[in-house]
Amino acid sequence: MPQFGADISFFKKISDSIPRIVLEHRDAEELRETRRRQLDAKTPDTSEISDDQYAQDEFLRFVAAMSDAIRTMDVMDQIVKNFSGSLVGDDRHNSQPLER
């Protein structure tokens, strides 16, 4: 019968140490209080935004708006392609070519 004791000794060490590493026995109220203190210790960033940061943020907002517009156009394209026969609307009888 094969002996795998030497082969699995690494896993045995890990399985014995997992409860010590992962589980730290503390009261729930103590954990909440510690978390509250950590959140209170953080100071809000009240520094002013530089012109470069503002320009970059404005550019990112523009890019996001353009991405939203392109996605909207993609969705509209799919609707027209898939449901063009069932879309209803008035016919244009008096349509004239555009003059330049």
How would you describe what is shown here?
This protein is mainly alpha-helical. It has a domain at 9-41 and 51-81. 61% of the residues lie in helices and 0% in strands. The chain has 3 helices and no strands. The termini are far apart. The model has no long low-confidence stretch (mean pLDDT 78).
Feature tags:
mainly alpha, 100 residues
Number of E-state strands: 0
Number of helices: 3
Structural category is mainly alpha
Q: What share of residues is helical?
A: 55-70%
Short structural summary:
By secondary structure, the protein is an all-alpha fold. It has a domain at 9-41 and 51-81. The protein has helices at residues 9-22, 28-41, 51-83.
Task: Reconstruct the topology from this structure.
Elements: H1 9-22, H2 28-41, H3 51-83
